[in-house]
Amino acid sequence: MADIRSYIKEREKREQNQEDYKNKIRKHKLASVYRTLLLAAAAVAVIILMVVQYKRHVYTAYDIIASVPKESVTGAVDVGMGSSILTYSKDGAHCTDARGNVAWNRTYQIQDIKAAVCGGTAAIASYNGRNIYVQNSEELLCEITTNLPVRDISVAENGTVTAVLADTDITWINTYNSSGDNIYNGQTHMDDSGYPAAISLSPSGELLSVAYVYVDAGVLKTNVVFYNFGPVGANNSDYIVSAYSYTDLLVPYIRFMNNQTAFAVGDSRLMIYGGDGQKPVSIAEYLYDDEEIQSVFYSDQYIGLVFLGEDGTRKYRMDVYGADGNKVGSYYFDTEYAEIFFGKDNFVVYNETECVIMTMGGTEKFNGNFTKTVRLMTPTNSAYRYVVVTDTSIDTIQLK
Questions:
Q1: Is 166 left (phi over 0), alpha (psi -120 to 50) or beta?
Q2: What is the pLDDT of residue 285?
Q3: For the chain, which terminal residue's Cβ has fewer other Cβ atoms within 10 angstroms, N or C?
Q4: What is d(CA 126, CA 108) in angstroms, rounded to the nearest whole number?
Q5: CB atoms < 10 A from the CB of 158, how many?
């Protein structure tokens, strides 16, 4: 009997020891979890603090962290072409990177230059001329020779070009691939379909938008028509996949922001089109009341319409809209702008001598003067680092 009681006590003792051991393991695991959670919370707090400080930080100056000499060309225009710089004039064009390396150099004689840029690709022509020069940031792609005078051009990032060509009673809208081959011919008559006042190719070159302006019974009208040169459009008459008609509206400006989104600017209305990238549909419209648009700027994410400031305290107001069709906000500034471009969550207003950078939250991150006369300013992949082109140099600057 004593042996049984001893055995039971021994077993209870072993069970108690096992339970104590399990409790110790459980407590150790909980302690490890708590430590991990505390470290994670601390890391999140540090990140939040850094983000808040970053968003609140205001830059007051900049450093030139790299600079290369640049040859000045009289009458030349500098534009950003992807991460490269396109310089063109009546005598020719060349492309350089931020380190001043020349990718290509092309000579020609053009009097009235028409230039179109999409990402890292550009097309250059002469109004009423018959040659279109197509190139990207790495090489010359092709030279297109038309049999009729060129009135307008648009280029896609893949080198596709659409040209408006003038004929006696007909206006042609012809599209060419990056090799210069004619892949589509369209025609319009002023008496019925109207005159193509604005054209734009999507970056992929698959979609084309055209704003046709015409007069019907004494009333000005505009048809915004979308063409699809891919398999979807091949099943439709003349590749037309969608069209929108507007009464008493002149639309002189239309652009693709990306392969899914386009917008058109009329004299009293902004129209934004989106969808799946096959058949653009209207997703938003905004009326301007009686205000007159001063300028239009855009990126793959934002549309900016500049108006005169209505309150008398600031000279300009820019209304910004997103690619989703929603209004982002209204922003006021006094700088006499030569150009405005968008970053991921900010925009840059600049001229030859001064620059203002503002976030979409309305925070002014920088307001200062350049130390050199600036011809062009473009963003880089680094935050608040930019490339500025002057008469004599290409400088990379970092705000501080």
A1: beta
A2: 98
A3: N
A4: 10
A5: 18
CA dist 369 and 90 (Å) reads 31
User: What angle (nearest 5°) sits at the alpha carbon of residue 238, between those of residues 234 and 242?
Assistant: 85
The closest of 139, 130, 134, 185 to 159, measured between CA atoms, is 134
What does the pLDDT look like over 70-118, one tens digit per residue?
A: 988 888 999 999 999 999 999 999 999 999 999 999 999 998 999 999 9
How many residues does this entry show for the chain?
400
Angle, CA of 75, 149 and 118, to the nearest 5° = 60
- Bridge partners (DSSP) of residue 199 are 210
pLDDT digits (tens, 9 = 90+) for 131-157: 999 999 999 999 999 999 999 999 999
Nearest to 323 by CA among 273, 388, 360, 278: 273
DSSP per residue, 44-55? HHHHHHHHHHHH
Contact of 356 with 58, CB cutoff 8 Å: no
SS3 89: strand
**CB-CB contact of 207 with 184 (8 Å):** no
Judged against a pLDDT cut of 70, whether residue 1 lies above it is answered with no
What's the pLDDT score for residue 193? 83
Residues 6+ apart with CB under 8 A from 220: 213, 214, 248, 249, 250
Q: What is the DSSP letter of 239?
A: G
User: If you compute the radius of gyration of the chain from its CA atoms, what whole number of angstroms results?
Assistant: 30
Tokens of 189: 């008559």
Residue 73 confidence (pLDDT): 81
End-to-end Cα, the chain, rounded Å: 88
- Point out which residues pair with 348 in neighbouring strands: 341, 357
User: pLDDT band for position 385 (50/70/90)?
Assistant: very high
| Nearest 10 degrees: Cα torsion 354, 332, 116, 85 | 30
CA pair distance 123, 305, nearest whole angstrom: 25
pLDDT for the residue 47? 58
- Classify strands 62-69 and 393-399 as parallel, antiparallel or unpaired: antiparallel
250: its two tokens:
């002149």
Q: What percent of the chain has pLDDT over 70?
A: 87
CA 157 to chain centre: 12
Using an 8 Å Cβ cutoff, are 132 and 155 in contact? no
Alpha helices in the chain (DSSP H): 2-56, 231-234
Q: Is 15 helix (H, G, I), strand (E, B) or coil?
A: helix
